[in-house]
Task: structure prediction
Amino acid sequence: MRIEIKDKKKFIKMFNSIHINNKISRINGVSIDSRKVMKNDIFFPVKGENYDGHKFINDSLKKGAIVSFSEINTNNKNVIKTKSIKNEIHKLVRKWRELSKSKIIGITGSNGKTTAKNLLYHLLDNKFNCNKTIGNYNSLIGFPISFLSSRLDDDYSILEYGASKPNEIKHLCKIISPDYSLITNISNAHIKNYKSFKELFDTKYALYISTKSNGTIFINSDQLKIKDSIDNRRIISFGYRNNAKLINNYLLINNKKISIPENIAYLKDIILSTYIISNYLGISNQEFENSLKSFSPSIGRGNYMKLNKFTLIDDSYNANPNSVKFAIDRLSNININGKKIFILGDMLELGDIEVNEHNKLAHTFNESNIDIILTYGNLSKDIHKNIHKQKYSKHYYNKNKLKNELNNLVCKNDLIYLKGSRSMKLENLFIKN
Result:
């Protein structure tokens, strides 16, 4: 990971106020990956389970890094000794946050948080100076470093708070606490690393609890309920069972009708959430409509692609039980002239419930109007055994054989839907990397 420092003069001043014995006169960016280091970068040699960035300090300096931190003693004048690389990063970020005037919009959830972040940024950036966390860098390292790419005079910073382990969001909020917060939903995605669903729920819910005492919480009442532990914040509740409807690609809310482009109508919860937040922050209905017209989801997050004679919906970035059921429902509700083909790769990080959650999807497929179901991987192998005979179903362990099957099956006007966990790399069936 590497980010560019945009507010260079102010960053240099801040850095030198902290490291008075190791002042810098230039800055380009910050990197934790020696392969991406550029001239005048700061290098943070992070330790992982299978690697140690300290081995690449000299390589980074040779590539032009102006300074590197190190937990190991060295005589190199361009290396700053520290007890903890992680704490050093957090120290810089906390100071940057202290100097920044931007209001923090924090987003988390089991599904849709990256798309919600990107759409909200798209909506606000036309009117305000905005920043957002880069990609899905939402961990204890990537999240704070990403914030360093912001400018001190930004109006809003839209930050994605991620968690793969208990209490991680609570720790992220100690570094940067949100002024506004949204949890898209909470399901059993990535539950493998948690003792229980309650522990996972509490980890995500920490975003609301950690919102500043004078801040604002946005809550989709269709998905979540406010717990008694939250007070002294303004709570704005919304939902399709409350004050909104989606009718024929129109969002009807508080007697106001807003046009929704057909290609993103499936993002109805995210569209409603971002409408409520952006409207609260001063975006008019017309501005909202205009911005929606030019928005498209990131690659692998449900975007349409025209390939030769058929259409592909690439939703292969990640998968969990709730998002797969949503995807099945989405494909079922699309009207086409050809066949509907669903390709499902394994859903990972589900722990002890992985076999049961995969097998339960057979019922969901049977209730749909999807014509062909092709599964791939070790965990999804039993799904096709329970698919009704009137549907075509096969399982594959080999991606090339699956690709050959598709070449034989797909016809003009067909629609193919890709869904699977990131490491299944289903996009490789169609897209050469």
